[in-house]
Design brief:
The protein is an alpha+beta fold. It has 1 helix and 8 strands; from the N terminus they run αββββββββ. It has 2 domains: 40 residues; 137 residues, Porin (Beta Barrel), CATH 2.40.160.20. 21% of the residues are buried.
Amino acid sequence: MHIYNSRCFKKYIVLLFVLGITNFAHAQVNAYNQKSDFWSQVRFGGAFGLSFGSDFFSATVSPSAIYQITPQFATGVGIDFTYANAEFYTATVFGGSVLTFYNPIRQLQLSAEFEQLKVYRSLEIENGPDQEDDYWYPALFLGIGYTSGPVTIGMQADVLYDENKSIYASPFMPFIRFYF
């Protein structure tokens, strides 16, 4: 005695094949729709920052793109360019960053940004040879800002700040960030 009927078994195989084809077609339609949904959640913009102290100036431009995962949470990537100048010091810096934004309420934005920066700097040393450095520097900024429409204004701090290697005058930096 057979546990299954061969006609019945063939019907199950055909049914599974049809269901498989249907699911495959449905998955292809969903993949197409998800592509168009993905780009509708991407926003472009960036930030710029200034840092200054006694006899020091630094300006940063950081274009980026973020993906709005939920109305409160976004993540993305960016590129960074910074120029710093002081009486005895110049630096040119470029690199990339990974960013995360969280808005617990519409007007308040908490942020985290990890930068990996390539630093070229020159120090003019009085009564000695000039010093040139070429190194990688990580920075991890944690920030808070006020958001109105596409603009966020706030303050961030580099929690990995190293006074000897950082291109910033202090670990604290105001920012203006915008995304459209």
